């Protein structure tokens, strides 16, 4: 397993330790999970914006009212 080291202030360290304790996990586990969640969120955000750009180039969406009319409702 690899090790990643980063610097935080004493106040930040204490804050993170308290949250990890509240979550009943080690500081290492808490920071690891939060970092992975943040990375996944960033990928999702970037993917969403890329797909929206593609969608907006050729927008074939219709309104709810148009859909109901096409379906005969």
Write structural notes for this entry.
This protein is an all-alpha fold. It has a domain at 10-57. The chain is 70% helix and 0% strand. The chain has three helices and no strands. The chain has helices at 10-22, 27-57, 64-70. The radius of gyration is 22 Å and the shape is elongated. The termini are far apart. The model has no long low-confidence stretch (mean pLDDT 96).
Average pLDDT for all residues: 96
> Which range does the strand content fall in?
under 5%
Molecular shape: elongated
Low-confidence stretches: none
Which percent range fits the helix content? 55-70%
Distance between the termini: 59 Å
Q: What letter string, H or E per element, gives the SSE order? A: HHH
Radius of gyration: 22 Å
Structural class given helices, strands, pairing? Answer: mainly alpha
Structure summary, number of beta strands: 0
The largest β sheet comes out as: none
**Tally of helical runs:** 3
Structure characteristics:
single chain; 70% helix; 73 residues; mainly alpha
Topology (SSEs and partners):
Layout: H1 10-22, H2 27-57, H3 64-70
Helix pairs in contact: 1-2
Question: Summarize this, please?
Answer:
With 73 residues, this protein is mostly helical. The chain has helices spanning 10-22, 27-57, 64-70. It has three helices and no strands.
């Amino acid at each position: 397993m690899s090790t990643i080291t980063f610097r935080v202030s004493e106040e930040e360290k204490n804050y993170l330790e308290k949250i990890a304790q509240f979550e009943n996990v080690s500081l290492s586990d808490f920071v690891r999970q939060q970092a992975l969640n943040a990375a996944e969120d960033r990928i999702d955000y970037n993917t969403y914006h890329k797909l929206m750009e593609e969608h907006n180039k050729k927008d074939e969406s219709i309104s709810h009212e148009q859909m109901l009319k096409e379906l005969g409702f």
